[in-house]
Design a protein that fits this description.
It is found in: Cell surface; Cytoplasm, Cytosol; Cytoplasmic vesicle, Secretory vesicle, Cortical granule; Endoplasmic reticulum lumen. By secondary structure, the protein is of the alpha+beta class. It has a domain at 29-220 and 318-372: Sandwich (Jelly Rolls), CATH 2.60.120.200. The protein has helices spanning 14-31, 47-50, 210-213, 269-272, 350-359, 361-412, and strands spanning 35-39, 51-53, 63-66, 79-82, 87-98, 105-113, 119-121, 124-128, 144-151, 155-164, 167-170, 183-190, 195-200, 203-209, 221-223, 238-240, 255-257, 279-281, 293-295, 307-309, 325-334, 339-347.
Length: 420
C-alpha cells in the first residue's frame, strides 16, 4: 500500500476516497486546459513590450492603460483604452502559434464603452503568426473577427466573421450587443463538431452550426430543374373582385389647366412661343382605379418545388479549424474614444474560460456599477450646491443694487425730520 502524500486524504473511508478523486479530477481538468493567450495588464507599463502599435498610417490613434472614470478595482480593471476621437486604431500581440484542429477554440475578452459610444468598433481579430504587426490595418488578412460594433440607432450587433478559403463569411443570425457604459464579457466558442456559441456576460446569446449559419458551402439541396410548376397551380392568395365596378365619376385627369391665370402683358411670342394656361394638380383626381381584392377560392398555396441533392455540394468537416494561429489584434475606428479592452483569453477549455470570466469581470462588475451610481449622485449634489450658490450671489447682488438705488434717491431729495 502506498504511503499518503502531503494533502492526501487520511483514512481509507470510501467517502474520503471519492471526495479526493473528485477534487483531483477537477484540478487535473483545469491543469489540462491549454491557455494560448491571456492578458490582464496587471504589470503596469509592461504591456508595451507585448503589444505592437501599427505604423501603417501616421494618424492612427494611441492606446493608454486605464481603468476609466469608474471601476470595480483600480488595478484589475485597467486595460487598453482608446484616447483620441475620430481615429483609426491598430495594435496587436503575438503568442506561440497553434492549431485548433480537433480542439475547441475559445476567444474571450471584456469591453467597456465608458463614453457611451455612438459609432465605433469594439471587436477583436485573430491572425496567423505571419501577421506584419507594424503594418496592421483593415487590409490585413485575418482568421476570425468577433465582438460588438455600434454605429447610430441601426448598428448594435456582435460580429462573428470567419475566414474560409480566403473569403470572409459573416454570421447570418442577428446578435445584439450591450449598449450601456459598463464592462461586458464577450465569448466565442468554436467546437470540432462545427457548432459554435456566442456568450455575453457568461450567458448564451446565440448558438448553432457553422455550416447552417454562415454561407461557407453551397446548399445541400437545390430545386429540381427538371420539374416545373403545373400550369393549373394557382398560388395567388387574393384576386380582383369580379363584382366590383369602377364608379362612373372616377375618371378625372391628374392635371387640369388653371383658367384663372392670365397671360403676362410682356409675353413675347417670338421668344417664349404661344402662351397657354399652366397645368395644376386636379383636386378631383383619385388615382388609377383598382378593384378591391378578395380571397382566391382556387388558392392552393405556395407550390413546393421538389428538392434534389446539390451536385456541387461537398461537405467539409474542417471549416472550424485554422493552422498557425499566432496573433490577436484590435483594428477599429471610433468617433468618440474611451473604450477599454481587457481580460483577453484564448484557450481550448470552455469551463476554464467561464471560470476566468467569473474571476475577472464577475468580481468587479457590481462594484463598478456602484461606483458609477455613487459618482452620478455626487455630481448631482455638486450641481445643486452650485445652483444654490449662484442663486445666493444673484440675490445678494440684486438686494445690494436696490439699497444703492435707495441711497441715491435719498441724496437727490433729502427729507426733513418733520416730513419723516
Amino acid at each position: 500500500m502506498m504511503a499518503a502524500g502531503p494533502g492526501a486524504p487520511r483514512g481509507g473511508g470510501p467517502v474520503s476516497v471519492v471526495l479526493w478523486l473528485g477534487i483531483l479530477g477537477a484540478v487535473l481538468g483545469t491543469a489540462q486546459a491549454a491557455v494560448y493567450f491571456r492578458e490582464q495588464f496587471l504589470d503596469g507599463g509592461g504591456w508595451r513590450k507585448r503589444w505592437v502599435s501599427s505604423e501603417s498610417r501616421p494618424d492612427l490613434g494611441t492606446f493608454q492603460l486605464s481603468a476609466g472614470k469608474f471601476y470595480g478595482d483600480p488595478v484589475r480593471d485597467r486595460g487598453l483604452q482608446t484616447s483620441e476621437n475620430s481615429k483609426f486604431y491598430a495594435i496587436s500581440s503575438r503568442f506561440k502559434p497553434f492549431s485548433n484542429k480537433g480542439k475547441t477554440l475559445v476567444i474571450q475578452y471584456t469591453v467597456k464603452h465608458e463614453q457611451k459610444i455612438d459609432c465605433g468598433g469594439g471587436y477583436v481579430k485573430i491572425f496567423s503568426s505571419d501577421l506584419d504587426q507594424k503594418n496592421l490595418s483593415g487590409a490585413s488578412p485575418y482568421y476570425i473577427m468577433f465582438g460588438p460594433d455600434i454605429c447610430g440607432s441601426e448598428t448594435k450587433k456582435v460580429h462573428v466573421i470567419l475566414n474560409y478559403k480566403n473569403k470572409l463569411h459573416p454570421i447570418k443570425k442577428p446578435i445584439r450587443c450591450k449598449v450601456d457604459g459598463y464592462t461586458h464579457l464577450y465569448t466565442l466558442i468554436i467546437r470540432p463538431d462545427q457548432t459554435y456559441e456566442v456568450k455575453i456576460d457568461n450567458e448564451v446569446a446565440a448558438l448553432g452550426n457553422l455550416e447552417d449559419d454562415l454561407d461557407f458551402l453551397p446548399p445541400r439541396k437545390i430545386n429540381d430543374p427538371a420539374v416545373k410548376k403545373p400550369s393549373d397551380w394557382d398560388d395567388r392568395a387574393h384576386i380582383d373582385d369580379p363584382n366590383d365596378i369602377k364608379p362612373e365619376d372616377w375618371d378625372e385627369p391628374e392635371y387640369i389647366m388653371d383658367t384663372s391665370d392670365e397671360k403676362p402683358e410682356d409675353w413675347d411670342h417670338a421668344v417664349h412661343g404661344e402662351w397657354s394656361y399652366p397645368m395644376v394638380k386636379n383636386p378631383l383626381y383619385k388615382g388609377v382605379w383598382k378593384p378591391r381584392q378578395i380571397d382566391n377560392p382556387n388558392y392552393r398555396g405556395v407550390w413546393p418545388h421538389p428538392q434534389i441533392d446539390n451536385p456541387h455540394y461537398s461537405p467539409d468537416y474542417n471549416i472550424y479549424s485554422y493552422e498557425n494561429i499566432g496573433a490577436i489584434g484590435l483594428d477599429i475606428w471610433q468617433v468618440r474614444a474611451g473604450t477599454i479592452f481587457d481580460n483577453f483569453l484564448i484557450t481550448d477549455d470552455e469551463d476554464y474560460a467561464e471560470d476566468f470570466g467569473d474571476e475577472t469581470w464577475g468580481e468587479t462588475k457590481d462594484p463598478e456599477k456602484e461606483m458609477n451610481i455613487r459618482q452620478a449622485e455626487e455630481e448631482q449634489q455638486r450641481e445643486r450646491v452650485a445652483e444654490e450658490e449662484y442663486f445666493e450671489q444673484w440675490l445678494k447682488k440684486k438686494q445690494g443694487g436696490k439699497r444703492e438705488s435707495q441711497k441715491d434717491r435719498t441724496k437727490k431729495s433729502p427729507i426733513g425730520k418733520e416730513e419723516l
